[in-house]
Each structure stands twice: as C-alpha cells, then as structure tokens.
Amino acid sequence: MLQIIADGLIIGSVISLGAIGLSLTLSIVRFSNFSHGELLAWGAYLALVGTTAFTASHESLASPIGPFSFGWGLVISLVVASALTALLALLLDAILFKRLRKQGAITLVIASFGAALVLRNLLLFWQGGVPKYYSQNLQIAIAFLPRRTYGGLRFTPDQLLVLALTLATVTALHLFLRYSVLGRSMRATAINPALAQVTGIDPERVLRATWLIAGALAALAGVFAGVTVQLRPTMGVELLLPLFAAVVLGGIGSLWGAVLGGFIVGLAESASVVLLGAEYRTAAAFIVLIAILLLRPNGLFGEKP
Amino acid sequence: MTALQIDQLEAGYEPGLSIVRGACLTVHHGEIVAVIGPNGAGKSSLLKAVAGLVPISRGRNLLFGKDITQTPAHRMVFEGLAFVPQTENVFINLSVAENLELAAAIVKADGLEPIYAVFPDLHRQRANLARQLSGGQRQMLALARGLIARPKLLVLDEPSAGLSPKMVEQVFSKLREVRAAGVTVLLVEQNVKAALALADRTAVMLEGKERIVAPSADLLNDERVTELYLGRFARERN
C-alpha cells in the first residue's frame, strides 16, 4: 500500500515537472502544445549524449556520486541539456508557432502535432529505438519500513533525489512567479494579455520566457524519467497524455494545480499497475481525471474565467 | 499645447473593415475631453487604436508632437499614455498590491505610497485579490494602475460602466483631481449627462467619425446631440 504511494510520487515527479511547462504554454501562449512531450525526450537524450561525451573526456565524471547511480557527468549534462532544450523550445516557437500565432489556437495545435512527429522521428533516427540508460550501475532500494508495515516502503537514492529536486524546482518556480517582475508579468499575461500590454509588459518577452522555462522543465522531467526508468525515443509521446491529464486535473494555468495533478495521475498509474495491471495504467489516470472534473469542472485549482 | 492629435484615423480589427473611419480630434494639455455617441459608433475602437490595441490602417496619432501611430501597445505607457480599458481592467487573480507593484515595477516608479495616499481604500484592500473587489473598487484600482506610470495623457474607456451613481461621482471626482494634477484626460462615456458635466469639451461620434466637437456646456441643450442619438442624423445622411 505504502509502496504504491511511493512509486506514485516518483512517477508524479516526472509528470508534475512536464505538466508545469505544458500548463504555462497553455495559459500564456494559449494553445495545447502536443510537441511538449518530445521536449522531455529530447532533454533526456541530450543529457545522455552530454554524459557520454563528458565521461569519455574525463573518466572521473563517470564515478557514481555517493549513493547515487550516476556521476558528475550527468549532473553537468542535466544543466546543459536543460539549456539546450529551452533553446529548442524557443527555436520551435521562432520558426513555427510565432508565424502561425495569428491563425488561431487550432492551427497551432495541428502545427504542434506536426512538430511532435518531426522531433520524435529525428530522435529515433539519431539515437535508434533501443532503450538506453544513464548508468549501468545497479541500485539497491533502501527499506524505510519493513514489509509487515502496510507492505513496506522502499526507495532508491536516485528516486529520493528526483523527489527532492522536483519539490525544490517547484518551490523555486513558485517564488519566481510570485515575486519576480518577469514571473508576475507571466501571470498577468496569462490572466489578461491586452491589459498586460497596456500595463507596459512586452508580450514577446513573456512568451520567450515561457518557452525557455517550459523547455528547461521538460528536460528536467525527461532526465528524471531516464534516471528512474529508462530512455526511449517514444517516452515523450507516452508521457503526453498523462501530462495533459495532470494539467486539466490541476486546473489550467495553476502551478500547484499542475504539481498536484501530476502526483494524482502518478498515484493513479502506480495503483492501477498493482491493482488492475500495467495495461490499464493510462486509463486509470483518465478515470481519476473524469471523476474530478465531474466534481470540479475547472480542475482542482482552476481559476474561474 | 496639444496633448493628442488624432488625424484622419482609420482603424479596425480586420483588414479592409474599418470601424474608425477618418476620425479627427485634438486634445489640449490639461483638458478633459469626452467622446460620446450611440452604441457601435466606434468610440471604444478609437481609444483602443490610440492605445495601440487596434490596428491602424490610415492616419496618425501625435502625442505631444511625437508620432505614436505605430507604437506597440506595451510601449505606450513609456511614451506617457496610460489606457484604462472598460472591462477586465485589473488582473483579477493578482492581489491589489500585486496589481500595483507590477505596474510600478514595469515603469520603475518609486514605491506605492503616493498612489495609496490618493487611493486609501486600495491600501486597506491591498492583500485582497482584485476579483474580490466591488465594481467601484476595481475601477479605482484600474485608475490607480494607470496613474502609477505618471502619464501625461490618461485614456479611459467608459469609466462609469456598471457603477452606481454614487460610485460614478467618486470616480469622476478622482478624474478631476487627476486633471488638477496636470494630467490630460480623454475618455469615452455612455453616460452623456455625467460626461458633459465632467468634460471641458465633448466629441459626438457616429459611424466611426466625430460629428460634433464643442465645449460640453454648449452641448447640454444642443438638439443635434439628441438627433444623433435618435438616429435622425444617420437617416438624413442616407
């Protein structure tokens, strides 16, 4: 029982970070970006390429840090991959979405489907379809509670780090959105773009910041997925529906809504694997989504229009 | 000195479909000028075109002699023009303080004390979300947000919309204070009596263009105003 919750929190960490970026683009750029999942996959693979390159040039970077399965090579690569994925998101906007913005949300959604296909297949062509790992080191889960206590509770050090970094990232983002001028400008633009403009907020600057943050968070989520599970070129599209479920569940435009939505979807997936079987994993998330939307049509933290 | 000169302005949301059709209006420094007219006359579109929110296809706008025709909406506040929209004129999911702090930070204004001194009620409400404010309080917040930038020209779209007569008087009283502080005011109003009582001069708009521009006192009993509102003018033109 407790292990289901623990596993749900780990899956939820990945979904939450991805869902925040998706929620930001949905509320500020104002369209459902179906290529967002591919940013997760690209972020994960860019970190893999970086790790391979760094550890090839400096062998010491491959040695595991403390109890974790990876070395400093992945840590440095994570930072580089986040920056590169942020730039990839910005590039995608500059060459595609920006040009189509005046055509309306439907055009942008269709364009994002196309972008997703291109990004996924480029990744497949570049990295192949075989699952990959950041490290071949095996990790032994640490027992926090014995089996006799509600089935026991075990975490690997990597999982605990992912959970801690997710909470730290979300807190930092909360402080940024709450107290910085750019963060408040982003919230203002999400609420009322025209009013934001007459207040003196440059809409293009806000959009650029949104893409950069969404891209960086996607990379972080992708790397966390790679650390806790594995890397596959299709990981983006596999995570896309849970990401959307988390955003809608939490309430579009709400940071904490996306986080809570992510954890709820993660818990639903984790419970369904044990209780119903892995094939019902995605369905379980959507059953929870439908149930919550019936009670709260704007999602858990959705702001009324 | 001319604060705003609107010259042969044509503007509209869709290309080839002008709502403002050759409007001309001069607003002098220190004046309050009201724009009135029946629904669909293009009053709000005229103001939005001046504020950079509606594309301009012809003509030009000069703000204290500087051409601002193609200035983007987000740069207007730095040129000295603050626009207060009719509805959705505050960030409803931000607190009162966040609304004002954001506006102040954008234009690098020195603190909120001067604004809270003019709007003491907003200071009391500063921790509340803007969505929790009454219509009148929201209008005051919108006005305060516009004034933070210390504009030379304050442009307001129907500041009395949806307010009780008592609140309308309070808002208009603030506008008189604003003018006394040296800020030029251009506003669109549906409340004709209130507009004529407030403004030094009034423009009556019909079909996207001003038809009469005169001192407000002269328009109080002007039959042409009544005719414009009743549509006779339009029928005669056809």
What's the architecture of chain A, going by CATH? Orthogonal Bundle
Kindly report the spatial arrangement of strands forming the biggest sheet of chain B.
6-7-8-3-9-10
Given helix and strand content, the structural type of chain B is alpha/beta
The helix count of chain A comes to 11
What is the arithmetic mean of pLDDT of chain B?
Answer: 92
- The CATH topology of chain A is given as ABC transporter involved in vitamin B12 uptake, BtuC
Text of the CATH class of chain B: Alpha Beta
Question: Strands, helices and their partners?
Answer:
The complex is a heterodimer of chains A (305) and B (238).
Chain A: H1 2-29, H2 36-57, H3 72-100, H4 105-127, E1 142-145, E2 153-155, H5 157-179, H6 181-191, H7 193-198, H8 203-228, H9 235-250, H10 255-275, H11 281-295
Antiparallel strand pairs in A: 1-2
Chain B: E1 2-11, E2 20-28, E3 32-36, H1 43-51, E4 56-63, E5 66-67, H2 73-79, E6 81-84, H3 96-107, H4 113-118, H5 120-124, H6 135-148, E7 153-157, H7 165-180, E8 184-188, H8 192-198, E9 201-206, E10 209-215, H9 216-219, H10 223-230, H11 232-237
Parallel strand pairs in B: 3-8, 3-9, 6-7, 7-8
Antiparallel strand pairs in B: 1-2, 1-4, 4-5, 9-10
Structure overview:
The complex is a heterodimer of chains A (305) and B (238). Chain A has one domain (2-295): ABC transporter involved in vitamin B12 uptake, BtuC, CATH 1.10.3470. In chain A, 72% of the residues lie in helices and 2% in strands. Chain A has helices at residues 2-29, 36-57, 72-100, 105-127, 157-179, 181-191, 193-198, 203-228, 235-250, 255-275, 281-295; strands spanning 142-145, 153-155. Chain A has a two-stranded antiparallel sheet. The longest helix of chain A is centred in the N-terminal third of the chain and has 29 residues, at 72-100. Chain B is globular and about 45 Å long. The longest helix of chain B has 16 residues, at 165-180. In chain B, a hairpin with a 2-residue loop joins strand 9 (201-206) and strand 10. Chain B is α/β, with parallel strands linked by helices. The N and C termini of chain B lie far apart (38 Å). At the A-B interface, helix 6 and helix 7 of A face helix 2 and helix 3 of B.
